[in-house]
Amino acid sequence: MEQLRRESVSILRVVVVALVVLNLLDAVFTLVWVEAGIAKEANLLLEGILSQSAIGFMLVKMALVSLGVLLLWRHRDRRLAVAGLGVACFAYSSLLVYHLGIAVAAVEFA
């Protein structure tokens, strides 16, 4: 039973690291697409920050998502928190696929 618990925590650690990395990639792609005029930030709070400062946007975006991930990690003994980490990882993975699709289309168009 203890071995299963350790393996579950190890998997969750990978999910947490993946979430932080995926969030960073999302932020970088968003900056590139906004700068290129291809897209705009969908989050109204972050859109306002992005219009003022790219560095501020990166800091706030990374902080907000990292704090959310930390909160879920601290409650990893609850099924809802584990589900939240899984859903967030799936959402950010899907978002990365979306960004990569835009990148492919942009390269093909150029």
Q: Keyphrases for this structure?
A:
110 residues; mainly alpha; 4 helices
What would you say this structure looks like, in words?
This protein is mostly helical. The protein has one domain. It is 87% helix and 0% strand. The chain has helices spanning 2-36, 44-52, 54-74, 79-109. Helix 1 packs antiparallel against helix 3 (54-74), helix 2 (44-52) runs antiparallel to helix 3 and helix 3 runs antiparallel to helix 4. The radius of gyration is 16 Å and the shape is globular.
What's the helix and strand layout?
Elements lengths: L1 H35 L7 H9 L1 H21 L4 H31 L1
Helix pairs in contact: 1-3, 1-4, 2-3, 3-4
Instruction: Write down how many β-strands occur, each being a DSSP E stretch of 2 or more residues.
Output: 0
Low-confidence stretches: none
- What class, by secondary structure content? mainly alpha
Number of domains: 1
Order of helices and strands: HHHH
Terminal Cα span = 55 Å
> What is the gyration radius calculated from CA atoms?
16 Å
In DSSP terms (H or I, runs of 4 or more residues), the helix count works out at 4
| SS strand fraction | under 5%
Compute the average pLDDT: 93
| Percent helix | over 70%
Gross geometry? globular
- Largest sheet, described in full? none
